[in-house]
Amino acid sequence: MRPVIGIIGNSYLINDEYTVHAAGTLNCEAVRDAARGVPLIVPAAPCYGTLDEVMVACDGFLFTGGRPNVHPEEYGEAATEAHGAFDRDRDRLALPLIRALARTGQPFLAICRGFQEMAVAFGSTLHPEIRDLPGRDNHRMPPDGTLEEKFALRHDVALTPGGTFARLLGGEVVRTNSLHGQGIDRPGPRVVVEGRAPDGTAEAIRIDRAPGFALGVQWHPEWRAAADPVSAPLFTAFGAACRAWRAGERPAAAA
Ligand SMILES: N[C@@H](CCC(=O)NCCCC(=O)O)C(=O)O
């Protein structure tokens, strides 16, 4: 049996009338084709199940991208105009779930907004608009254009030599897309930054002393996940961790 991978998506209003919980097809395909798991969309709100119930239902979790920003209250700052829209339901599910997964060793991979949730869950602060910081580049996707253009490879990411990402991805420099406005400002004490864009923006993180697969990337590896030379090994390793969890293997607690 393939592992069941819970996809934490987003809520949307369709036809100006119906609220729905949804996750992008790209994420579902990445789980099926690159992680070799069964995608299961989990409503991004804490009111549908307890953390325990959600964790038992899945072998691992994918925290997807999403337009709304993590509410700055979660890292002790006040909301401003610059922070834009929020999704407090997703915050209230994702942050405790990430902490629980990092404690138990159940695998998770966090993408873009998910990466930012992971960072905040472990004490980081975010900057609402990193391109406003001195020396930083614009990491946002082009406002117009095709999906090809939006998900085009845009910058290098330098990985820590000998680190988890360099090992998994088979090199110390990878090329990635970029579709975000926020970024990590101050990383929390257990947030290990293993990848940076040329302007210094944190792009790849892991949680120190998490016993299992606990990785996050600021870019979007779900784009062409099975074919892309960076996405494929990342999802393959994530899928292997989920398969091991499904088989009953439990990672030893880190010292
Ligand atoms: N809001 C954050 C996160 C950016 C992000 O996840 N972008 C992907 C958006 C995909 C979508 O539109 O659903 C930021 O801008 O930093």
From TrEMBL:
Keywords: Glutamine amidotransferase, Transferase
Domain of life: Bacteria
Membrane-spanning intervals of the chain: none
Entry keyword annotation includes 4Fe-4S: no
GO terms under cellular component: cytosol
The enzyme's E.C. designation: 3.5.1.94
Function, in words: Involved in the breakdown of putrescine via hydrolysis of the gamma-glutamyl linkage of gamma-glutamyl-gamma-aminobutyrate.
Protein name: gamma-glutamyl-gamma-aminobutyrate hydrolase
Species whose genome carries this gene: Hasllibacter halocynthiae
